[in-house]
Write a structure and sequence with these properties.
- This protein has 104 residues and is mainly beta.
- It contains one helix and ten strands.
- Strands 5-4-3-7-6 form a five-stranded antiparallel β-sheet, covered by helices on one side.
- Strand 6 and strand 7 form a beta hairpin.
Length: 104
């Protein structure tokens, strides 16, 4: 049984066997027709769906699209600048020029 202290909200289902809570996911990274899911535990999963499909199916305000390739969980953003985002695991992701306004 899952502990409810580590998880919040309803899980979102991505594919047949992938069920995740919002606070488990650091960010999604799109690569053509596949998406890498980077988890807060340090692990990652590969899903055969586009990033746009995932963005439309998660139905959460916790995630923000910062570039063509990255969909980031707001709760794990530690710092951000004009053209980068620093996550809690010290990952630095680029912010697209047209998406700079979404971080304010």
């Amino acid at each position: 049984m899952l502990s409810t202290t580590n998880y919040f909200g309803n899980p979102f289902v991505l594919g047949k066997y992938t069920k995740l809570f919002a606070n488990e996911v650091l960010y999604f990274e799109g690569e053509i027709n596949y998406t890498h899911i980077h988890l807060s535990s340090g692990k990652s999963k590969l899903l055969a769906k586009t990033l746009l499909t995932i963005e439309n199916s998660i139905d959460s305000t916790d995630f923000i699209r910062i570039s063509r390739k990255h969909l980031v969980n707001r709760k794990f953003i530690v710092d951000f600048g004009r053209d980068f985002v620093l996550l809690s695991d010290n990952t630095i992701l680029p912010v697209a020029r047209r998406r700079r306004g979404v971080l304010n």
